Amino acid sequence: MDLARLTETVRWGVPLAGQWGVEVIHAEEGVAHLRLPADASLLRPGNTVSGPALMGLADVAMWAALLTTTAGQDNSVTSSMNVNFLRPAGPGPLVAEARVVKGGKRMLYGEILIRAENSDDVAVHCTTHWVVIAKPPASAAI
Fold first, then answer.
1. Which residues of 72-100 are buried (b: 16+ CB within 10 A; e: fewer)?
2. What pLDDT shows up at residue 66?
3. Within its chain, how far is the Cα of 102 from the centroid?
4. Domains, the chain, ranges and CATH?
5. CA 138, CA 108: separation in Å to the nearest integer?
6. For residue 41, which of 24, 55, 26, 20 has the smallest C-alpha distance?
7. What is the pTM of this model?
8. Which residue among 49, 61, 105, 113 is the one 20 to 30 A from 55 at the CA level?
9. Which of these, 97, 109, 88, 28, lies nearest to 60 by C-alpha position?
């Protein structure tokens, strides 16, 4: 799946990602890097991106990483997320790097690092579990 198609899929599946201008800038099997452009509406006092926006970016980045493992057909959902805010992320733009650490038939485990663009300093570290939602058999369709 190319980056433009993956970005389109992410924005379709999570319309808020489209509103925020999130784009996929790198993808390979089990890995996705997303860019969140600077946006004053996402800032909190202190001129840094807010916690809710950071958590949303992390969640979308993990879903993008999962999409790279399923040819863009992933219906998994977040089961849990542990977020550690290590330092202010700044006003943006930001880059979220997500990777599938362990895949499975029912549960998936991933890790996301968020940094200010062009910085090596991790601002946010997340771990997350996702539940695989099986498609119903064709015979179950109404």
1. bebebeeeebebeeeeebbbbebbbbbbb
2. 92
3. 16
4. 3-135 (3.10.129.10)
5. 25
6. 20
7. 0.90
8. 105
9. 97
How many degrees, rounded to 5, is the angle at CA 98 between CA 94 and CA 102? 165
Q: Which residue shows structure tokens 């996402």?
A: 42
**How does pLDDT run across 1-37, given as a tens digit for each residue?**
799 999 999 999 999 999 999 999 999 999 999 999 9
pLDDT tens digits for 44-102? 999 999 999 999 999 999 999 999 988 777 778 899 999 999 999 999 899 999 999 99
> Which pLDDT belongs to residue 35?
98
Mean pLDDT of all residues belonging to the chain = 91
How far from chain centre, in Å, is Cα 92? 16
Determine the Cα–Cα distance for residues 22 and 31; give it in Å rounded to an integer. 16
Cβ 9 vs Cβ 52: under 8 Å? no
DSSP code per residue over 26-80: EEETTEEEEEE---GGGEETTTEE-HHHHHHHHHHHHHHHHHTTTTT----EEEE
**φ, ψ of residue 45 in degrees (nearest 5):** -55, 140
Q: Which of 20, 18, 11 is nearest to 40 (CA)?
A: 20
pLDDT tens, residue by residue, 37-46: 999 999 999 9
